[in-house]
Automatic annotation (TrEMBL):
PANTHER family: NICKEL ABC TRANSPORTER, ATP-BINDING PROTEIN, OLIGOPEPTIDE TRANSPORT ATP-BINDING PROTEIN APPD. Its EC number is 7.2.2.11. Gene3D superfamilies: P-loop containing nucleotide triphosphate hydrolases. It is a peripheral membrane protein. The keyword ATP-binding applies. GO terms for cellular component: plasma membrane. Keywords: ATP-binding, Cell membrane, Ion transport, Membrane, Nucleotide-binding, Translocase, Transport. It is found in: Cell membrane. This is Nickel import system ATP-binding protein NikD. InterPro entries: AAA+_ATPase (IPR003593), ABC_Ni/Peptide_Import (IPR050388), ABC_transporter-like_ATP-bd (IPR003439), ABC_transporter-like_CS (IPR017871), Oligopep_ABC_C (IPR013563), P-loop_NTPase (IPR027417). It comes from the Archaea.
Length: 348
């Protein structure tokens, strides 16, 4: 039955790790949704909590030392209270993961065909080996591996980086997942191959009718694949919106700083000055305050500012959008490195 309900709804998701130095809060009470058949990008610098957030959905973070709380509803079912066996059915079934480095995920002692056949037969134990091989060929064809039947008997080291990522995507598709969680799947690839993999994911999304949660540090990649964007910093959501809202009306100083780091923009060479705060002892107030060019006194007291809605789909966590402030102060034009200016950065 078709429904308008989001495929995934995350509310108050918090992931903590017990360490010798104290409790490390990697993800701190975040909310987001993934609509059916659409792509949501979780974006932020390394250490922003985006990978831990994505891994907390199916609880593949190690627990202990990790502890996940909050609500994760997948197709109406609460995931956080599921037993391990119920979770096992969803992981690698209706929700599949692919990771940055296919090198680590593939077993180099077995042929690619053997590994896909095993994945097919694990998911469907009644399928014969011959049928599973035929399915493996179909999957390799779907992900654009040329000469798929012959390549089944090749070992992972005989595939290029881009081809290995295609194989990993094929293995993720074995179960015809409703949600594909892709964690920096193109980061290790050169720009041309990166674009090919993004195009492939878009084609497969339509063919397999999947939603995608795409985790990346690269707003350039986001422009090519996202329907919706959630910008994370130090475990918190700073801004969320459609891809058009984020690129044409970036509103949070952190989002704008990330955009200024794109090639051709003012901070492309040096990046955002400073580093992320400690997740064990984060600063009071806005987590971004120590690096923010627009911080005022109120930014450094209390909690992270609540999200202020700018539209039905666009919200921002910054005091300059609260009553009594003028948001235009944080919306100076973004300066490109050739001296030209722009309000936002177009997504195409
Ligand atoms: S709340 Fe303050 S520190 Fe945080 S982004 Fe807004 S201006 Fe900067």
């Amino acid at each position: 039955m078709m429904t308008d309900e989001p495929l995934l709804t995350v509310e108050g998701l918090t992931t903590e790790f017990t360490t010798d130095k104290g409790t490390l809060v990697a993800v701190d009470g975040i909310d987001f949704e993934i609509p059916r058949g659409e792509t949501v990008c979780l974006v932020g610098e390394s250490g922003s909590g985006k990978t831990v957030a994505s891994e907390s959905i199916t609880r593949i973070v190690p627990t202990p030392p990790g502890e996940v709380s909050g609500s994760v509803k997948f197709d109406g079912q609460e995931v956080t209270t599921m037993s391990e066996s119920e979770l096992e059915e969803i992981r690698g079934g209706r929700i599949a993961h692919i990771f940055q480095n296919p090198q680590d995920a593939l077993n180099h002692c077995y042929t690619v065909g053997w590994q896909i056949v095993e994945a097919v037969q694990t998911h469907e134990p009644d399928v014969s080996k011959q049928e599973a091989r035929e399915r493996a060929v179909e999957l390799l064809n779907d992900v654009g591996v040329a000469n798929a039947a012959a390549r089944l008997d090749d070992y992972p080291h005989e595939f290029s980086g881009g081809q290995k990522q295609r194989v990993m995507i094929a293995m993720a598709l074995v179960t015809n997942p409703d949600l594909l969680i892709a964690d920096e799947p193109t980061t290790a690839l050169d720009v041309t191959v990166q674009a090919q993999i993004l195009n492939l994911l878009e084609d497969l999304q339509e063919e397999y009718n999947m939603s995608i949660l795409f985790v990346t540090h690269d707003l350039g990649v986001v422009a090519g694949i996202a329907d919706h964007v959630v910008v994370m910093y130090a475990g918190k959501v700073m801004e969320r919106g459609t891809v058009t809202e984020i690129f044409e009306d970036p509103s949070h100083p952190y989002t704008r700083a990330l955009l200024e780091c794109l090639p051709g923009q003012a901070r492309a060479a040096e990046g955002i000055p400073g580093t992320l705060p400690s997740p064990i002892n984060p600063p009071d107030g806005c987590r971004f305050a120590p690096r923010c060019d627009y911080a005022v006194e109120e930014c450094t007291a209390g909690e992270q500012p609540p999200e202020e809605p700018l539209s039905d789909t666009h919200a921002v966590s910054c005091v300059h959008y609260q009553q009594g402030y003028d948001p235009s102060t944080v919306k100076e034009e973004i300066v490109q490195d050739d001296g030209a200016t722009t309000g936002g950065v177009t997504s195409d």
